[in-house]
Structures are given as C-alpha cells and as structure tokens.
Amino acid sequence: MKLFARTLRLWEVRRQVASWSLVTGQGCLGLREGRCWASTRAVRTRADRQKFGHCFITTGRIMRPDDANVAGNVHGGTILKMIEEAGVIISTRHCNSQNGERCVAALARVERTDFLSPMCIGEVAHVSAEITYTSKHSVEVQVHVMSENILTGTKKLTNKATLWYVPLSLKNVDKVLEVPPIVYTRQELEEEGRKRYEAQKLERMETKWRNGDIVQPVLSPEPNTVSYSQSSLIHLVGPSDCTLHGFVHGGVTMKLMDEVAGIVAARHCKTNIVTASVDAINFHDKIRKGCVITISGRMTFTSNKSMEIEVLVDADPVVDNSQKRYRAASAFFTYVSLNQEGKPLPVPQLVPETEDEKKRFEDGKGRYLQMKAKRQAHTEPQP
Q: pTM for this structure?
C-alpha cells in the first residue's frame, strides 16, 4: 500500500508540472513520449535569481529499460543527453530574459564529465543546472545529476559537468548575439569564472586545429592494435535530431559519440564496458538538418584498467554543394572493463604501430597521469 501511495503521489506531481508548463510555457519543453518532465526550482523570484546570478532549473525522469546499456545500467550517452537538455533550457531562457532579438542557445563545449556512480533502470534521474558565469557571447552552466531509488528514497550523486553555450539569433543562426550579464554575490566568483572562460576558449581553438586527420580503415588488422578496434557510424541527420531551428541538439551528438566509443572499447577488450569519464567535448561547428555525419572512434591509450578513445564527428552537407565536409565535434572518452559482478577487469594493452599512433599514446598517457595526480591530490587529507 505504501508503494502504491507513493506511486500515486509521483504521478500526481508529474501531472501538475505538466499542466503548469502547458499554461505558462515554462518548466517543461515538451513531454516527449509522455515520460519527460521538468520544472524550475523556485528558490527566489525570477528578478532575484537574475540579480544575484542564481539561475536554476531541475529536470527529471524515470529510467526505463530502453535506456539500458549492455551491462544493464543506464547508457552513458543517455545521461549526457539529459545533461545537455537541462543546460540548453536554462541558457536559452537566460539569453532571452531581456528585450531584444530572440535567440536559441547552442552547445559549444562540455568540460570533463566523470561518471561517479552507475544509474540503474527504475531509478529517477534528477538533473540540476545553474548558470555560474556569463561572458559577452557565452554562458557557463554547471550541472549535477542525482539518482533516486523511488522504493527506498535514497539518492546519490552520479555526474557533475560544466557546459558552455552561445546564443544564436533566430533570424540568422550563424549570428552570435550578446548574453545578458549576471550580477555576482562576490567579486572573486566573476574572476574565477573569467579564468575558466579563457582556459576553455584557448583549449577549444587548439583542439579544432589539432584534430584535422581522418580515421581510415585498415584491412586485416592485428588484435590489440588501433586499427583492430576503430569504428565508425554514419548517420543521416533528420528532423527528430534537430532543434526547431534546423541544427542538431548537442545531446544527440554526444549520445552518438558515446555509442561509437563504447563499440571501440568493447571490440578491444571483448567484455562488458561502461563509460568512466568524458574529457572535454568541443563543438566546432553546427550540424544542420540533412547532413550526413560520420562519427569515428579510435583507441589512443590504455592503462591497466582503463581505455581512452578519441571520437571525431565530421559533417558532410550532401544537399549543399557550396559547403565542404568539416569537423563538427571531438572528444576523448574513458571506459573501463567489467566482469559479471561489475568489478573492474585488466584491459588488454594497446599496441601502437605508426608514429602518429605512438604520439597519440604518449599524449593519452600524459592526460591519464595528470588526472590521476588530481584525484590523488583531492583524496589526500589536508594539513
């Protein structure tokens, strides 16, 4: 009876949120397949949130069997897509908070995202997003994901991420508009945000020029080599992949990238694999409806228990002869191999063959050692 009563209360809340959003046009941007709902967290009035820079939104939905990966947990790409959906809602709302040209926020970059704990089917995912910095043409959104067991009420943190958006004019989506500023409660918050903005801007530009190569297939590759596990997925961008303004949702692209990276990891170790973390995802250019995109993944580095996979997204505007194929996005995904009990397994060591592969291996090793040092510094007791 208690479970039945709790279920009724949950559905009543969802019904009320859906009704409220249909009346006000806020809180929920479409109840997709009747299972996605969202609401704003009324910590302050809208004027107060804008004045002090506390812009919040919380979305949530129950995890269903079609969200599962091979290991039975929620697919990492599904969580990335939910993170991006919350980010685009709050950033688009903020960028349209003042009178002026209407716009839509487009994802430009996702900072490193760690998968701290697996999320299970049947749990409710709560995604909380907050605007923490604005530059002249970009918005920083920090997102936390909590999983809730609705039978016991227990919650745990599963993901933290930082996303950057730019506002694009509805009249011309190639035009970037200015972002309404926020007021910070402390001066150091603005200074820290400016440092994060400059760092991500520099890295995003460096990554765009660094990732100019193409993943080429190799006939009869040897096991444990880069060529043996590299994979590609070709996808025709349709209306369901896009915003109302004709370019692809960032969350859709991230989910496809995670799928390709998972295939590479599974081919390499031939076991169940799960996403452990995602290094910065850089979106270099918009992907428009009607493009054919090629998502390519290749192994770059292996430690004893983890694998780093580079994923590149190239867009080919087949219906527009005036534009050539271009690099749309790039990222590094880290996966771990698990046994049937969900315990980490040793990873077969990658065998780099060419000079480029050896260089990418050393670069990946550097990123691995850098993140390992950061984790150790956080876990060591402070004097």
A: 0.80
